[in-house]
Amino acid sequence: MKSLKFLMAPILAVGMITGIGVDHGHAEVSTVTVEEGDTLWSIAASQENVTIYDLYEWNPGIDPYHLQIGTEIIIDPGSDWYHTISAGDTFYSIATMYEDINLRDLYVLNPNVDPYNLQIGSKVRVKYDADYGNEYYTIKAGDTLYSISMEHPGVTLLDLYNLNPGINPYNLQIGTEIRLK
């Protein structure tokens, strides 16, 4: 039995370092559909352990003053959005555990986390949402795609056409949201 203990210790250590044997199951995203009279506050209050700040983080670009009936709002992004820190974890080891993320992404997704002082049991975000980094603009009276591209540095007319397929530049509807980036 003594030789088995000496054999298992290095194998377990390698597994802890490389993340082999760690189960990262994927939970499904939970959403709620906005109904008449709903507010972000009422939606957060109706869910266990969900704050209004969580809803803002999980639904970037959401306008709390103009919730559209029928809109799907994420109320639980699922456990695959976060990694729970365990003994020996580093940003580098976490980045190697997940397929769609690198070390730079971890820094971007977790700006308030000190990577040199990771606390066991705390969580770090390991997944971008679909709209992360996207910017939108709401059409106002008198707007044209050209004027919008001129108002926003780094946005070209071609960008607006590519990011908003099917847009009719001759019939922009006031209040319509278009993607800038």
Strand order of the largest sheet: 1-2
Which regions have little confidence, pLDDT < 50, spanning 5+ residues?
A: 1-9, 11-26
Helix content: 25-40%
Give the DSSP E fraction (strand runs of 2 or more residues): 5-15%
Rounded mean pLDDT score: 78
N-to-C SSE series?
HEHHEEHHEEHHE
Rg calculated over all Cα atoms: 22 Å
Sheet with the most strands, sense and barrel status: 2 strands, antiparallel
End-to-end Cα distance, whole Å, is 61 Å
Shape: flat
Number of helices: 7
How does this structure look, described?
This protein is of the alpha+beta class. It has 7 helices and 6 strands, in the order H-E-H-H-E-E-H-H-E-E-H-H-E. The strands form 3 sheets. The protein has a two-stranded antiparallel ribbon. A two-stranded antiparallel sheet has the order 3-4. Helix 4 crosses helix 5. The longest helix has 17 residues. The protein is flat, with a radius of gyration of 22 Å. The termini are far apart. The N terminus is likely disordered.
Task: Give the SSE layout.
Elements: H1 2-18, E1 30-33, H2 40-45, H3 52-58, E2 72-76, E3 82-84, H4 91-97, H5 103-109, E4 123-125, E5 136-138, H6 145-151, H7 157-163, E6 177-179
Antiparallel strand pairs: 1-2, 3-4, 5-6
Keywords:
disordered N terminus; two-stranded antiparallel sheet; 6 strands; 32% helix; 12% strand; 181 residues; alpha+beta; flat
Q: Quick summary of this structure?
A:
The protein has 181 residues and is α+β, with helices and mostly antiparallel strands.
